[in-house]
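Researcher: Re-running this chain for the archive, since the previous output was lost when a drive failed. Same request as before.
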Amino acid sequence: MPSIFGEEQDRADALEIYLKKLSSKDPLSALKKTIKWDIFSADLRSFRKSLKSYDTGRPPFDPMLMFKILILQSLYNLSDEVMEFMIRDRLSFMHFLDLSLGDRVPDAKTIWFFRNELSKADIVECLFSRFKEHLESQGFMTHKGQIIDASIVESPHQRITSSEKTKIASGETPSSWSDAKTRQKDTDATWAKKNDKSYFGYKNHVNADASTKLISRYAVTTASVHDSQVFEELLDVPNAPDEVFVYADKAYHSGATSEILRGYKMNNLVLRRASRGKPLTEEEKAKNSEWSRIRSRVEHVFGIQCKQIGNMVVRVIGYTRVRASIGLRNLGYNMKRLVFLKKKGAVCSE
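Model: Regenerated structure tokens:
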């Protein structure tokens, strides 16, 4: 019987031909081929063994499959329900996940459970580090130019009364809240004001390589934490003495920051800030202008993340889950960035 492809062939052959045509244009095909997925295998297998296993029932899904699903989910900012539908609906998703039309697909609850257990086990940072090691081995992490910055990641606004806020601040749960309501309230997120606008949620603090715009380190805090409080934690201090330049905006300029960089023998290129009675000199203004051209490259990191997912709002609540969600987002960004760099033939000096 003639097929939609204009010749007699079974469904398997038709699908294979379609996927070959798709692979040349599909960005997920490039991601699938470029990333060396087996570097994550040992950590994922170890994590899977730590979960409870039962002798009865269906066998669990391959942890690599579930991990790839979470990467897809972070790149497109999809809910668990929509993710399940998209895997069944999109051949590009199935091809990326090595699934065929007849294979069993994880449902929304399975995706939620895997991500939740991954969050509680604090494995995401380990997976991020594994990929960073791979990038270093390929020469894509120079560490010589490091840009520190942070971006607010919003959470859905919470309708909480003043008395409820007081109880939450003291570490208590309001007695009027049911178990269901408690699960829906993010009591970890905090408020912050930026450019006269208030935000509710968390912060994604990153250290980006000045040459490649790859993220080498990250930290997640609530929105009210000042950027400078995690400055030292984000620094990527080289093992061997080397000339390292650290860039950051004026929010990081302080005596404490200068002392930290001096202690690590790293070059302080944090933008200078004028103080009362002590305006910037012409030389300092010129240096700020020069350093800003490099420091601004970190805006690309946050801009791409916003462009990929539409906005910076997280779909989970609670610090532990948000930390894992942002970690997966940073890891997904690095993966796509590597695809771009290799496509452009970029080679970094070690």
